[in-house]
Write a structure and sequence with these properties.
This protein has helices at 7-13, 18-29, 31-35, 53-69, 103-111, 131-139, 141-145, 168-180, 212-232; strands at 39-45, 73-79, 115-123, 154-161, 185-186, 198-201. Strands 1, 2, 3, 4, 5 and 6 form a 6-stranded parallel sheet that branches. It starts with 6 loop residues before the first helix and ends with a helix. Helix 8 (168-180) links the parallel strand 4 (154-161) and strand 5. By secondary structure, the protein is of the alpha/beta class. Helix 2 packs parallel to helix 5 and helix 4 (53-69) packs across helix 9. The chain has one domain (7-232): Rossmann fold, CATH 3.40.50.
Length: 234
Amino acid sequence: MQSSVTRRSFVQAMGIGAGAVAGLAAVEADGAEAAEGTLKIIGVSCSPRKGKTTAQALTICLEAVKAAGRGQIETELVELADLEIPGYVAAGVPLKPGQKDDFPVIAAKLADRQVTGIIIGTPVYFGSMTALCKAFLDRCISFRMKQFTLANKVGGVVAVGGVRNGGQELTIQGVQAALLCQEMVLVGDGRPTGHWGATVWNSGKDDISQDEFGVATLKNLGRRVAEVALKSRR
């Protein structure tokens, strides 16, 4: 059966319409110049609760990025909590009338060639990522359609659970599977913890400071992302 969906209509349905595509093209045109300047690592918090433990965890991780970057890396935290990211658009379903879509703005940020690393942070819900995180990763299909825009960017994952062994590693692996589909270069939390990523637990009081091991994994992940990002520019 022949499909009536054209490439143009499908791309528009993905949430990267003409304006967004033009924006991504402009970003890529400036890429060569940006590659010679300061690198940038973006942390994306996929918690529906703004400013809480996932954002706190990413902040610690990004601070470690800057410390290891020796003045050569800038960082930015992006929180999705107040944004509208309709996941169904990833299936080629057009936006509903009046439906707001903030994904193209985030997409333009991540596609910037100055951005050499992306750290995804998500709470653990029933052993997996949040619905917001899944919707965001699903929408990232637009990067694959546009010549794998995220390819070779460094990727890291932070998972925050309600207990120490609350599914953090399962959640990290789920997010990593999506990032591998983008041809990103994945790193875990480096030595001495050295596993899949940063695993943190929330004490129940929106405080991760008492989790010494988890904070260590955050710092180690940030350092590893910075190290690999710096090597990638050589």
